[in-house]
Amino acid sequence: MSEPGGGTRMTMLHWLGDASAAAALSRWRAEGKACAIATVVFTRNSAPRPLGSKMVICEDGRMAGSVSGGCVENAVALEARTVIANDAPVLLHYGFTADQAFEVGLP
Amino acid sequence: MFVEAAPSDLSFDVDVAAGDAAVLLTVIEGPEIGQRLLVGSEPGVRGGDARPALAAIADRVEDSGILCWRGQRVFAEVFRPAQRLVIVGAIDIAEALAHLANALGWRTICIDPRAVFASSERVPSASELLVEWPDQALRALDVDEDTAIVVLLHDEKFIVPTLLSALEAPASYIGVLGSRHAQAAWHSQLIAAGVPRQELVRLHGPAGLDIGASTPIEVAVAVFAEILAVRSGRRGGFLRDGRGAITRRPLSVAVPAKEIAPVHRATR
Q: How far is B49 from chain A (nearest CA, A)?
């Protein structure tokens, strides 16, 4: 990954930013499963996960990584299965205020 | 939240030079939703499913955020090579620091001129061990803004040359373990060696946030907390006593939040 000169080759791991999520993705792909990636592209102050945080979702419902610290993962996973089925990306909007976090069910 | 089918590994195949960054642009809203471009350090357009016209905005990107492009919304992600922690002195705190650095995704280089100390048995978590004179090794490492230096070695033979060498480069942080009394003595020696007094504010010594750390791992937590605070321009302290944003604010070129038309979808 890193070279002596200090340069780096970008990989899927850099993009996912999470070694366990990257490992899960390659494992699920090896099983022949289709997968989706969810990325936090917009945050307000005190969002539970920073911009660029990612979650990998397998078509069978398994998940790795995190986009909210547990608040919206289930809702995102449901949408992800539609994305896989339609092969069309979507932009979703979730509230992250304390009240809204309870609406979607904190763990 | 942007949800897409997982792209292929080959879509992420560019080189990023030290001190540089790769930029990934993805159209997240608009007719070309899902189109993307990855720009690395090499000249020219790269990336598996590239959308070359996006290259025009890659230069405007300084940090991750949302940009407007041809009436569409583009999410820009900035990737920088792993940050480096250079530890001078292979004592017990060096291993604790290297262990924490690994958990944080940093690379660690540990320097000690004494071969019996700079061993992978003593510092197993270090990415690299250098048995060299610290001042020479630091010069050879090409220290940049993505590098933090922590000096653990107190030996009079090494400390002043090491600090002189550390101050030459633009390291984001230079921490120096040692008593307040010792720090003052080293400062005097550095001034005598010709270091301007205002340069000495770059030295964080005694290193670490004031958390009453005593064991090696506690000291490492205190020092790393200070490294992260300096990186974010924060002073440490209790969050409950502050009023500002809790998370680090990206220095973004992104459109202000109020200009982003929310795309409302039911959350259940």
A: 14
Answer whether B267 sits within 8 Å of A104, measured CB to CB: yes
Residues B111 and B219 in one domain: yes
**CA nearest to A101 within chain B:** B267
Task: Verify that B168 and B88 share a domain, yes or no.
Answer: yes
How confident is residue A3, by pLDDT bands cut at 50, 70 and 90?
very low
Which range marks the domain in which residue B225 is found?
A: 84-237
pTM of model > 0.80: no
Q: Domain containing B143 — which CATH number?
A: 3.40.50.720
What residue has token string 């590994």?
Answer: B9
Task: Evaluate the CA torsion angle B4, B8, B13, B18 in order and state its sign.
Answer: positive
Residues B67, B106: one domain?
A: no
Mind spelling out the 3-state secondary structure of A69-91? CCCCHHHHHHHHHHHHHHCCCEE
Interchain contact, B267 vs A36, CB within 8 Å: no
Of B220, B223, B232, nearest to B205 by C-alpha is B223
Query: Amino acid identity of B160?
Result: V
Asked whether residue B245 is assigned to any structural domain, the reply reads no
Q: Enumerate the residues of chain B whose CB falls inside 8 A of the CB of residue A44.
A: 257
CB-CB neighbours of B268 under 10 Å: 9
Q: How many domains does chain B have?
A: 2
pLDDT (tens digit per residue) in B218-264 = 999 999 999 999 998 999 999 999 887 777 654 333 332 223 333 33
Residue B57 shares a structural domain with residue B13: yes
ipTM > 0.90? no
Question: Looking at the partner chain, which of B7, B22, B265 has a beta carbon nearest the beta carbon of A93?
Answer: B265
* Same domain (yes/no): B110, B225: yes
